[in-house]
Amino acid sequence: MSAHTEAQKDKLLKKLISSVMKDGFQQLRMDDIAKHMDVSRATMYKHFSSKEEVMEGVVRVFVDYIETLEDLSPEEDEASFGTWFQQLFGQTVSLVGTITDIFLKDLQTAYPELYDRLKAALTKREKQALEFYRDGKNKGIFNPINENFLLLQDDLLLREIINPKYLLVNQVSIRQVLHDYYQLKKIQLFKAEKLPMLDDSKIEPVIERLVEKFNRTL
């Protein structure tokens, strides 16, 4: 398949993702999928021959995105821990803010092999994050915090504070919440004397992209 065709497919899949994450896909017919993709049935069928193929595409988009987080080499200098932390932060917010329980349940029920593929990618990423936290602790860059708590915090606290209901009740913007959460993670993780090595200007475009993405799905 050409890179151009692959890009076209990804564009269609990304238009569909917010609706399948919100409502699941068990009830969706191919007609509904074409509507969400904002194309005719004929155009959709040029790229996808079945609902399973569509969901396979959605899973591939996520797996490809997860795999953009490369392992941190043991030889890397201290500054690279700051860069990797920011990449991890951006990807974590994006994944937590996109992948929903309703989608995972539908996937597990309808296409268990696709579910296993996505879970395997997420599990591998979790191991990468744990190794990163342990490595930072061993090198005296990070505070001695239980790394499993850090992952749990992302799964529970982050999920809660980016929820539109939370934002509305507390009269706070998604931009402010992400800035505050970044500061919380940074101060919690890095030893005080290591904080100056973080270039916070690099997180600004990451947060802006996340805000844009979040506002599109509201």
Model description:
The protein is mainly α and 218 residues long. It has two domains: 1-54, Homeodomain-like (Arc Repressor Mutant, subunit A), CATH 1.10.10; 67-217, no CATH class. The protein has helices at residues 3-23, 30-37, 41-47, 51-66, 78-96, 101-110, 112-138, 147-161, 164-169, 174-189, 203-217.
Q: How would you summarize this macromolecular structure in one to three sentences?
A:
With 218 residues, the protein is an all-alpha fold. It is built from eleven helices and no strands.
Number of helices: 11
The amount of helix comes to over 70%
Give the overall average pLDDT: 92
Number of domains: 2
The assigned structural class equals mainly alpha
Order of SSEs, N→C? HHHHHHHHHHH
- Spans where pLDDT lies below 50 across 5 or more residues: none
DSSP strand (E) fraction? under 5%
- Largest sheet report: none
Shape: globular
Q: What gyration radius follows from the Cα positions, in whole Å? A: 19 Å
Based on DSSP secondary structure assignment, what is the total number of beta strands? 0
Distance between the termini: 33 Å
Please describe the structure with a list of short key phrases separated by commas or semicolons:
0% strand; 218 residues; 2 domains; 11 helices; mainly alpha; Arc Repressor Mutant, subunit A
Write the layout of secondary structure elements.
Elements: H1 3-23, H2 30-37, H3 41-47, H4 51-66, H5 78-96, H6 101-110, H7 112-138, H8 147-161, H9 164-169, H10 174-189, H11 203-217
Helix pairs in contact: 1-4, 4-7, 5-11, 6-7, 10-11
